[in-house]
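Reopening this ticket.

The earlier resolution said the output was attached, but the attachment link was broken on my side. Pasting everything inline this time so it's all in one place.
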Amino acid sequence: MRDTGASARRAARHVTLFLDVDGVLNSYPVTGLRFLRERRRKVRAWHYELHFRPRVVRFLDRLTRRRLVDIVWLSTWSQRCRTEIEPKLGFRSSFEVIPMPDDTYNRFANDPHEWWKARAVEEWFAAHEEGRAIWIDDDLTAPETRAHFEQKYGSRLLMIAPEFSQGLSEDHFSLIRNFTYRRAVPAPARRTLLTTEPTGELAAVQVPAPGLTSTDSLAGDNAAVTNDFPAGIGTTYHGKA
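Inline output:
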């Protein structure tokens, strides 16, 4: 018998992950001892040499196999993400691509109304009113674009902007995992005090639990689902924690 409760929980935490290539997967050039320490590999894709970390690729593959995310390529590599990046970097799955519609590349990265990637993400949110997304792109350091998406989508969107020279790393993994899991926590307990009314009769008064003010809502004794997200949700996360 199908566990509909588990299916509902899985659907609630399922997100779409918009993924860039350069500055996220590829951090060319990485040289010397650092290349060895980070267990990088180098490949030729199209006309370029890429320095990537297989562990990052495996992490992203696991997310899709566990049905926690749907990855969508959002990169100037466009369809070459499927013909070059996926096979050369060793992805086990193939993902949808949103191709670059013109030759502007990242010229308008600081203009959320002109940048083609920003428009693509806006269109996705317009089509998914309850949807949640992760957007990983080193150009999300652009202040105007960052502020626009923070204000408009808040906790529905996790933006991660790795440093180009570092790329996506283990420091970002916990942010991504936590965003895909909403944890249920007990609602604050209510306390009942007995007070004496002017008439001399006793009356029950509901008192907020510690940590709440009298204006906070007390939603009862059942578990309440909260957006228990780490710092960085709805904001850009730069480099290492």
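Reporter confirms the inline version is readable. The longest strand covers residues 191-196. Residues 187-225 form one domain.
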